[in-house]
Here is the input.
Amino acid sequence: MGFDKENPEDDRLLWDKFLAGDDEVYAYFYKRYVDALFSYGMKFTSDRELVKDCIQDVFVKLYGNRSRLGEVRHIRVYLFISLKNALFSVFKKDKTMYHIDTVEPVFYVDYTAEDIMIAGEAEEEERQLLARIFESLTPRQKEVIYYRYVEGMEIDSICRLMDINYQSALNLISRSIQKVRNTFACQSSDGCREAKRINLIPKQGDRYAK
Amino acid sequence: MPNKEEIKQKEEEFSVEELLQSDKFISSCLNPDAESDKYYDELVKREALDERDFRFARRFIRSAQCRPEHLPQGEKFELWASIEVANKKNLKAKQRRLYIISLASAAAALLLPAFWGMNRLFSEAMPAGLSHMSMEEVAFPERTTDVQLFLDNGRVVSLGGNDVKIAYRGENIYINDSAVVLKNAGMDAGNGGFHQMLVPWGKRSVLLMNDGSRLWANAGTRIVYPATFSADVREVYVDGEVYVEAAHDDTQPFAVKTKSFAVEVTGTQFNLMAYEQDSMKSIVLVSGSVKVHDAHLGETILKPRQMYLSSGGHAHVEAVNVENHISWKSGVYLCNGEPLGRIAERLAHYYGQSIACSPQAAVLRFSGKLDLQDRLENILDGITRAAPVTCRINNGTYIINMQ
Here is the structure.
């Protein structure tokens, strides 16, 4: 999993150093985030060169606008937002080139990862079933799942990345979880029992359920 | 066993969804540590958490993981290089002057056109601070067998063929007389940086600049130049051999920089040979006048038909037959009583092969015209017919011996 924990305090210090003109910190940003940014960008397009161009754009602008930038809480999130904006401005400019039948770029995720360690055949079967269910989510659901469970982002960050409010983000995540759970319950081997369990247990403590 | 309702009243009680909406739980899955493992184990033990719910929530997060897209080290390096170059260019634009930072000695590793050299620098330099890299250090990409054009927006264009013509005209870049037209991004995007042309061994290329200047690049040459020349000087950086026809402009001198010296002209024709891995470097002036600034040897002014030859910290000027030094640009190599060792060296460069001469054979003098469009085997064969030498190939190296 390409996630490493960030300390908000560290981010604040690094950002201040960067604003003060520290080029090493700038290089560190690239080193630390380029893989995550590339992976993220590739969810919107299969055009590697375009993603690379946009990453370059993000870093060049970051450097050039250094004196005009304000406070940033999560550097990762700031860079993700910048990359998404850069990509979307290209998509907007050239719809025909990148999207023939969709107006919005589709968030595409390949869930057929092999590098997840799960022991046992039964578990493997379940994992494959879950992967198929994830595939069936809508692009927006996939996107929110990616932010929350791959990047481990907080709801606030997701709100900014998807330009939605707090409650909408929670609802979007909640609906995605429900969809995965329900489909899984219906399709897995002990599905019936599972389904009953889900439906029978009252959702009193379930603050976020719709 | 206490009934379910009772447990539900407890403070620490989680459903699948609550687990999946909890920052703490997500973090414990993405960055497992002993402490959080213990915490959730306890919850399960106390039945505050249904074990199946817990397992499902974990599997959910694991299944959400997808294969990360990897950017290979080489591409990562190149991308950083173009970012640095663009930043420098932007800074320079702000400062209203353009200069090319001299090559740091640490860059020596990069002079090997080998890929591992790049990887090594990447891995070593990254943690300490990439920002120390100057343009020449970072901008040496992997050589391929094609002429490559690296644009300031990070795009790389590979161009097949032995003689590639690249022309900058207005906002466009024409390849081989407009077969391919590229947009010169530096002109309209305003984030212009440096472009770079890399000619592999065995190939040649012609570069037509926007100001009307023409540069012929011999095999194994790298030219770095700005997407658009600054107002006060037209500056290019060369590692290799170029023949320059600089368009005349008194107000905006044309400068060719190399690792060891710089040549400044207002409009003239000259040949410059300065492969960074070779100790011998030369400038041959065809017409006009040039000023050579050598970091160690000071300033020299050349007259037409003179050659400035520097080697091992010494330089001298001698009269030469100009044609011998510039014939390569038309695909011909004229030798006029040159030692075979020197000819072999140039052929090795030109064809990207390694050629070894025995000491006796190396001093044989040779005159003639070699067709550089021909295969190396044929040329060497021709030499064995003209001189009392033999040529054989051993482990990919051509070896020339006395008969």
Remarks:
- Residues 392 and 399 of chain B are 5 Å apart (CA to CA).
- The first strand of chain B starts at residue 147 and ends at 150.
